[in-house]
């Protein structure tokens, strides 16, 4: 027989967000799920990142049904963290929701106040200005607020955007292309010299410049790289399938022979 204390978790008549919070509380209860009860903020970190990436994958696939499901999985993460914090007397889910409500109202005076913004660039500038005031003007750099925990590609793009807002940016893409050529030449020079100590640094500079070009051309670097990886993976699997059909062991082929299979797949 269900525990009467878990009645709210079983009550489908209440708003779904409230029922979700009640379910999480029941799972974390002493007589709830042992796995859920053992989790901490730290143990949930990897799952939070994974769920976010699964949402991105659903968006890329334009799969609404899967996107709805993945957003639900992602929504569970803040509910989970808030429940842990509630048990520890630190904050509640209502505090989390109230905090973001207040922030959105405060940082959109052009919507909920008298201010006006001509375009999205002005909105972003105003957002940064309000953010600096909120933090007591303690910002020492235009780059403050970019998390060091972001994936490298995303962090590079955010840093570049922040620098661009204070004018540190080329006005067009052509100089960025020239910079990529310059950085590639530096990589080639280090490789030719066998100077392995600097190769990593020079490749980093090259990658940073490529991210900059994507940003200037309004291409999302993360999406572009994911698409390129997907394309490579699809073609490579077809090469493997072709080799199996012909009874060929791929690890016995030369690179030239593998390239022949690759070109055949591309043409197909």
UniProtKB/TrEMBL annotation:
It catalyses: ATP + H2O = AMP + diphosphate + H(+). Transmembrane segments: none annotated. Its EC number is 3.6.1.8. SUPFAM superfamilies: all-alpha NTP pyrophosphatases. It is an enzyme of class 3 (hydrolase). GO terms for biological process: dATP catabolic process; dGTP catabolic process; dTTP catabolic process; dUTP catabolic process; response to stress; TTP catabolic process; UTP catabolic process. It comes from the Bacteria. Residues 39-112, 177-237 form the NTP pyrophosphohydrolase MazG-like domain. Belongs to the nucleoside triphosphate pyrophosphohydrolase family. This is Nucleoside triphosphate pyrophosphohydrolase.
């Amino acid at each position: 027989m269900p525990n009467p204390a878990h009645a709210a978790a079983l009550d489908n008549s209440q708003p779904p967000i409230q029922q979700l919070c009640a379910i999480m509380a029941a799972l974390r209860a002493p007589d709830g799920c042992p796995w859920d009860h053992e989790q901490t903020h730290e143990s949930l970190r990897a799952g939070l990142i994974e769920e976010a990436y699964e949402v991105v994958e659903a968006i890329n696939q334009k799969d609404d049904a899967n996107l709805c499901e993945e957003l639900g999985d992602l929504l569970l993460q803040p509910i989970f963290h808030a429940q842990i914090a509630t048990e520890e007397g630190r904050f509640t889910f209502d505090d989390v929701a109230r905090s973001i409500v207040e922030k959105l109202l405060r940082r959109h005076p052009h919507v909920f106040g008298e201010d006006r913004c001509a375009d999205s660039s002005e909105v972003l500038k105003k957002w940064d200005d309000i953010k600096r005031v909120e933090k007591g003007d303690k910002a020492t750099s235009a780059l403050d607020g970019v998390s060091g925990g972001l994936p490298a590609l995303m962090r590079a793009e955010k840093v570049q955007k922040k620098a661009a807002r204070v004018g540190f940016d080329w006005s067009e893409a052509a100089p960025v292309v020239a910079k990529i050529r310059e950085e590639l030449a530096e990589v080639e020079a280090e490789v030719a010299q066998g100077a392995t100590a600097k190769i990593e640094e020079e490749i980093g500079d090259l990658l940073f410049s490529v991210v900059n070009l994507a940003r200037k051309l309004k291409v999302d670097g993360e999406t572009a790289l994911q698409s390129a990886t997907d394309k490579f993976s699809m073609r490579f699997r077809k090469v493997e399938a072709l080799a199996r059909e012909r009874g060929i062991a791929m690890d016995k082929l030369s690179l030239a022979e593998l390239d022949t299979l690759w070109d055949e797949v591309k043409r197909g």
